[in-house]
Write a structure and sequence with these properties.
Layout (H helix, E strand, L loop, with lengths): L10 H4 L19 H25 L2 H29 L1 H6 L1
Helix pairs in contact: 2-3
């Protein structure tokens, strides 16, 4: 990241303790059930995994390493979400761990 990508007018950077302003571009309805939310999160992370893997194939050196690090974080997130979905599917099994 170079200094030209830093936006000093970004309210989150000027006031990090304040919550982000409400965005109506991407809004998740409040009545969506947990399993549906987790399923969509899992699909989003799987897509991020594919995108970053494809990008890493086009890069080399430090940029490739950084991209693969992001890809690994996406995989870990996907594994965590899948485990949460498994726990929702079988609550008796989840309490045994």
């Amino acid at each position: 990241m170079d200094s030209s990508s830093f936006d000093s007018n970004n309210p989150r950077l000027r006031h990090p303790g304040q919550p982000d302003p409400i965005s109506h571009v991407f809004t998740i309805l409040p009545d969506i059930d947990t399993a549906t939310l987790l399923s969509h999160a899992c699909e989003t992370l799987a897509s991020l995994n594919v995108l970053t893997t494809d990008l890493a194939c086009e890069l080399s050196g430090a940029q490739r390493s950084l991209t693969l690090s992001i890809q690994q974080l996406a995989v870990v997130g996907e594994l965590l979400v899948n485990r949460a979905l498994d726990n929702l599917d079988s609550p008796a099994t989840a309490t045994q761990h």
